[in-house]
């Protein structure tokens, strides 16, 4: 049994939860999320908590217990508070701007890079070098941040590129080995 999976998920005030079979729907002030889970995991709503239980004892399904509980907890937090990821653009001439649903970035290529934001993700740009992504779905937010970062991963020599805030880039010495 998973220690994390055993803990009940507390539902914040203002969040409405509906469990229908293996599908969980959460509606809150920030938005609505719907997610289906594996049939070997049962989910029950009790008052202001959600309890996740594993059906059966097969070893291959045990990791699903804690995973499902964490996904339900992330849904509850997302629809009540939302999630944010902050990306920093560093390099001479590197910058970003939002144009409608597009994020247009100048990253040292011969052309600007345009990324269309998916539905449910908002972007703000401060000082042309700090991109703040926000949304209710933690999984989608992380995927969008990773795709934006993949356009210009920070290089280890000059640390130019797009990185997460707080990410440490291990610097290498140049050719002279200084």
Number of helices: 3
Q: In CATH terms, what is the architecture of the largest domain? A: Alpha-Beta Complex
CATH topology of the largest domain: Outer Surface Protein A, domain 3
* Main pleated sheet: 4 strands, antiparallel
The first-level CATH class of the largest domain is given as: Alpha Beta
Share in β-strands? 35-45%
Spatial ordering of strands, largest sheet: 11-12-7-13
Overall tally of structural domains: 2
Name the CATH superfamily classification of the largest domain.
Ribosomal protein L6
Report what the structure shows:
The protein has 178 residues and is an alpha+beta fold. The chain folds into 2 domains: 3-80, Alpha-Beta Complex (Outer Surface Protein A, domain 3); 83-164, Outer Surface Protein A, domain 3 (Alpha-Beta Complex). 20% of the residues lie in helices and 38% in strands. The chain is built from 3 helices and 13 strands; from the N terminus they run αββββββαββββββαβ. The chain has helices at residues 3-6, 63-80, 138-150, and strands spanning 9-10, 16-20, 23-27, 32-36, 41-46, 49-54, 83-90, 95-99, 102-106, 113-116, 121-126, 130-135, 161-164. The strands form 4 sheets. The protein has a 4-stranded antiparallel sheet with strand order 11-12-7-13, with helices on one face. A 3-stranded antiparallel sheet has the order 1-6-5, with helices on one face. It has a 3-stranded antiparallel sheet with strand order 2-3-4, covered by helices on one side. Strand 9 and strand 10 (113-116) form a beta hairpin. The radius of gyration is 21 Å and the shape is elongated. The N and C termini lie far apart (53 Å). The mean pLDDT is 86.
